[in-house]
Every structure is written in structure tokens, then in C-alpha cells.
Amino acid sequence: MPDDLLATAIEAAGGQKLWNTLCSLTIDVSSGGPLWAMKGWPPSATFDQTVTLNTVDERIKCTMILAGAQSRAGLSEDDPVNHDAQSPYITFSVIDADTGRPVPYDERGQVVMNHISRTMFVPNNLERDTTMRVAGPEGQVGDSVSEVKPVETFGSEAVIEGVIRTTTLSQPASGTQGLVAIDTLGPAGEYRDTQPRGDHQHRRSGAGLDEHRSHALRSEVMTPPSKRLAVPGPGGLDEREPHPMTDPAPGFFGQLSLPDTDIALKAYAFAKRATPAFILNHSIRSYVFARAHAARRGLRPGTDYDDELVFVSCILHGIGLSEQGNGDQRFEVDGADTAAAFLRQHGVEQRRVAIAWDAIALHTSPGIANRKATEVAMTQAGIATDIIGAGRENLPAGLAEELHAVLPRADLAYALSDAVRVQAMGKPQKANPLTFAGVLLRHHLPYGAYPGWYDLIGAAGWGDKPVGATARRRAETPEHVATLFTEYLETADLDGLVSLYEPNAYFVAAPGLLLIGTVAIREALQQMIDSGARVRLEPRNIRRVDDLALVSNIATVTETTPDAKPISYTTTQILRRQPDGGWLLILDDPFFG
To answer: Which of 387, 282, 281, 273 is nearest to 338 (CA)?
Structure first.
């Protein structure tokens, strides 16, 4: 390492003694020169520890958080240093990086910074800093921060806290933390100042930064672009290829005439990072279908509805099935909350955020969504069309085929159902038995493991019993059906006999004579009553699987004529357990055996 470079570093640290205690540094001093790394050894040892790398494709990424902060005035030397954002141009959010949700105040989380001004546009940047979340002063947008320190790792890379030389800058007013510039050594050996970066936790008292006190900086040596970790998204780290903060509009945006406004592209980029392709494609198709339904009703974008908001609602409606949106509420509500936080973070006014929340939270609630704002109704209609084909017959000819050519379905309905089910299996609290997710979960669990409506009624503890037409005695077991059949036949109770069959049941009245449905079965049973025959049913065998039962009886039939002799034969019935717990016949074939 050149002596003058080492001397500069020691000078920047505040002298030899302080250097020996603080030298923990990894920093790239040029875009194409050596990397010098000191791991806490005395300066004399660093000559032997110099590492030379080809850094053409490697660089330092530094925190910018405290460059946009100002230390809060009026605090004593014993108080923690609180940093307030220079809002509204710079704002902080302190989140749980795993969930993307804000941490409680006075708890530690990772910093998301937004810097939007004439000189810089860095929205929604997940910083390499953790901090205590502090309530901001009155009128500030977003959080304040305290006790800032670097994360230990960012992706798979270790993050090292370093020491750099600073230039002399004027101290900003109002207690603003001084800016520190990274001095890099250019190819010809000259020093040059790069973009100002943020100071660490040190409090300033002088008019400038020429005190040569140490300034800590978080830095990371980045691997070449082909191996580089992706840029973090709004809810955490994305595992895909690196991308700009706002992805450029893909070609199909123009082909399908999709909105290409700033917030539309940001929402698309967020959804692309967070959700699998089949959900992303479904979300875009849902918007196109929603727009088609609106046009059929004579609704005009920009006049009768907010076209951008419909697109954003559709594109983000599946975010509740992403890792970022997987909270403890039903997936529709988690998705609505995640989308609303994203929109607020990007400056969307609360009135529009509230509409988007409704659209996403109610997208599985037909009959409710259509009574809300037009954008809410459109979103639900488009989504229902793409999943279950609702209103498909009203689409313009060829539209669905064009969409599927650009955005393949990938067996959407089943893939989406599986995604909902898998999420609910991991967090059953997300799947109330009466919700869409609850219905799916019940279908995939062992019989009786997850309650239905009548199970909830039975477990309510109020002792409610069926009333009206359903108050007739029900067969509590498959075997009980035979007992009730014999009883009703002996008392000529036609309604009782009919009540033992499902409305669309099959009944074989005679060999080769198949009757279907209540009306036909009722006529056959009436003839049986009129004949005066008596039937005795004795259980022979039974097989029960979940809510189905296969039953075989020995039937003995005695006619009313004086010389009639009893006839015995084997019957076969299939029964199904009903929502109220009773059992009914779905197939009754006295002659199958």
C-alpha cells in the first residue's frame, strides 16, 4: 500500500491511536485499482495484508441513510442520538426485512429510505442499516431512527463497517448531520470526490467536518453483475436478476394498451419481484378483462373510473400470496394491507389507497364488491372472469385468445388454489372455515379435521336444533337409514320415506328401471305404500369412508295376499353424510346384489 494512502487513512481516523482501535475497513479506493483491507491489525501489518483484486466489475455500495438525516435538537449528551428525516424529500421506514412490515416503535428493524428530489431519485431502497424505530417529530413523514448500525450480512455477503477519509464541508443548519465524501483515487493518481454519503452515529459540535474524527461507513464489496445479488424489493430481498428501481415497461404493455404511468410501472415491478409468473400473468389478464367489462357497460376511463387505480388494484391483488404479504390474516386482507402500504410509500393519496384496499380485500366477495366503488367492482369482475370464467361470454371475440398468447394461463385456477391451500396449511388462522381459503383447506384435510357451517353450529354450545321442514328425525348413522325406512313404510309416511333420499338420488324401482330425482322416487314409494307390502331390512355389511358409506342389507319383503311368501334378497345403497350430520341415500338399488 502506498505510504501516502495509508497516511491519509490514519489522518482521517483522527490519528494513530484512534486508528489502531477503529481500523476495520474494506473499501474500494478506485474504480480500477487495488482493494486495501485492514482487519484490526496495527498499520505496520497492513502492508503484508494488502489484497489486490480486479475491481473493474466490483465496487463499494455505501449507506446513504444519515446523509438524509438531521440529529434532533434539544437532546442532552446522555440521550440517544435520534435522527429525523429531511421529509418530505427524504423519508425513513423501519421494517422487519422478512415480512416487509413496520416494526413496533423502540424496536430494531432494517431501514427503507426514499430520497426523491431534483438531484436524486432513490425510492424504496432497503439500506444496509438496522436501527431503532423512533416516532418522528410533528409534521414529519415517516419514521425517525436511532442507534444506527450496519447489518451483519446483506444477502450472502458480509457487511463491514469501515473508516474513510473525509473532506471539509460546511455544517448544515438545524443540527443536520454533516455529509462525508468518499475520496477515490483516479486512474492517474488524482483524488476526486464522489457522491456525498452519510455519517454514522457521531454528534457534531463544530462548524465543519475538518476535525478529522472517524466517520463510520457501511460498505460491501459487490461481485460482478453476473453473480450479483438482486436489489432488495419493498418487502425484502428478491432472488431474481438485478433490476432498476422501476422496471421498464415490457413490450406487451404497448400491445395490450396497459397504463405506463410511474405508479403503474412501480406496482408492476413490485408484483413481478414478489409473485410467481402465473399470478403476475393472471393479474394483468384480470385488468384487461375488467376494462372490457367496463367498456361493454359504456364506462369511460378517466371519466367514469380511475383506470390507473384499476390496473394497480389488479396487479397487486395477489400480493397476499407472496412471501412479503404472508401475514396472519386471510390472504385477501394481508394483500390489501401490503398493497396499501406500498401505495402510501409511493405518495398515492389516501382516498385512492382506500379504494385499492377495498378492491383487493373484496376480490373474492361477489355481491359485496359490486356494491362498492366502480374500481372495486371492476377489479372483482375481471379477476372472476380470469379464474372461473364469470362473464366470459360477454368478452369481445378473440380477446381471451390474444391474452393467453401473450400471458399463458399455466393452469391458473388450480395453481392459484394450490397456492392458497399451501399458505393456509402453514397458517390455519388465515383460513376461517367460512372463507374461500377455509373451503379449500377443508377439501384437502382428513374428514372431520376442519369444520363446516353445520359443525360450527353444533359446536356453538347454544343447543340449536333444525326447525320447519328439516325438523324430521334424521338418520344419525348409515345403519339408521334402514331403521327409519322400515318405520316410515309401516306407518305409510310418504314424506318420511322421501326425506331419506337426496333431491337428485338414484332409485332402482324394479330390475332395469332407474328413477332419478324426488318426483319420480316419490311416485314409486307411493306405489309401494299402496301395495301394502312390508319390508324388513337387516344389516349385512357396511364400508364408510369420510362422508360416504356403502351399505348392504338383507331385505325381506312380504306381500299382503294370503298366500304370499316372504322374498329375501340383498340390497345395495350408497349414502352421504349431510352438512347437518344426518345421512341420506344417493343411490338405492334393491336388486344390485
So the answer is: 273
